[in-house]
Design brief:
With about 300 residues, the chain is an alpha/beta fold.
Length: about 300
């Protein structure tokens, strides 16, 4: 599937990676998860990013899970595979492997550990786009990488033709507004922050890459529809109803609590791999209570969609 910036609109769940009882990738559960996401209104899928435990998977597993996702999707929506490598050579190798597995685009994190200048990151994305012949999204998450991209640099990368979109994972709202003003017409800017999703969309984001959509895709799709249609008050009201769930899911390192919550909701995707551990008893209690509040809302939205 050939995609462009206009195809990056709406809800893009950042998929968890399902494991079976032995800790291996599970194709059956992947198929169920993909159907659940698309049935809930997802416009695309993002496997093996941070939520998908990129760093805990072997290179072969990353390719295998991408291929599983592509097969399960059957061309219904685009598959944007995450690359969270620290350096250029590893990132290129991963990208070409994911391309061979059937990914429609790559979402590439800004290089970290060896932190480059703004011009260095611009060159990184330009050279990557030449080395991996797939549409490319820039993934900015300064809380993990210590790299904060300036709006002017993102605009230059867009004008270079290197990217068709980006995932913006930062709480810096003034900078987000500057990014939208600079590149909102050039590329698709996708929110990566659940608490700010409705506000980001109302300010010009084309959609979002959302981890907790694994649990409640219908609710996030509804929030997107309300925000993009101009009803920000209703969107934020609905988003606020999910605050206890978000607090519980992100009380410990993602995706440990998220995977536990998915098992509680009827889709056991296995535990997160080491060094992550299952969530604490306190977090498990909070997750169970939060799900009791939001699951009826999700079920009602999905029944209407059906």
């Amino acid at each position: 599937m050939t995609i462009a910036k206009d195809d990056l609109k709406g809800l893009f769940p950042a998929l968890v990676t399902p494991f079976d009882m032995t800790g291996k990738l599970c194709a059956e559960t992947t198929g169920r998860l993909v159907d659940r996401m698309i049935g809930g209104g997802a416009s695309g899928l993002v496997p093996i990013g941070g939520t998908g435990e990129y760093s805990a998977l072997s290179p072969a597993e990353r390719s295998e899970f991408t291929a599983m996702t592509v097969r399960a999707t059957q061309g219904r929506v685009p598959v944007v595979a995450g690359v969270v490598a620290t350096g250029f050579a590893d990132a290129v190798e991963a990208g070409n492997s994911l391309k061979a597995a059937g990914a429609d685009a790559i979402m590439l994190v800004t290089p970290y550990y060896a932190v480059g200048s703004q011009e260095g990151v611009r060159a990184y994305f330009g050279n990557y786009r030449e080395a991996v012949d797939l549409p490319l999204l820039l993934y900015e998450i300064p809380g993990r990488t210590n790299v904060s991209m300036k709006a002017e640099t993102i605009s230059a990368i867009a004008e270079d033709g290197s990217i068709i979109g980006m995932k913006y994972s930062s709480y810096d709202m003034p900078e987000f507004i500057r990014v939208i003003k600079q590149v909102g017409q050039k590329i698709a800017v996708l929110s990566g922050e659940e608490p700010l999703f409705a506000s980001h969309v109302s300010l010009g984001a084309a959609g979002g890459v959302i981890a907790t959509a694994n649990l409640v895709p219908g609710l996030w799709k509804r929030i997107f529809d309300l925000s993009s249609s101009g009803d920000l008050t209703a969107a934020i009201d609905l988003q606020h109803k999910m605050s206890p769930l978000l607090d519980a899911v992100f009380a410990e390192m993602n995706p440990g609590p998220l995977k536990h919550a998915m098992a509680l909701s009827g889709m056991d995707v296995g535990d997160a791999r080491l060094p992550l551990l299952p969530p604490s008893a306190e977090t498990q209690t909070k997750l169970a209570a939060a799900l009791l509040e939001v699951q009826p809302l999700e079920d009602a939205l999905l029944s209407i969609a059906a």
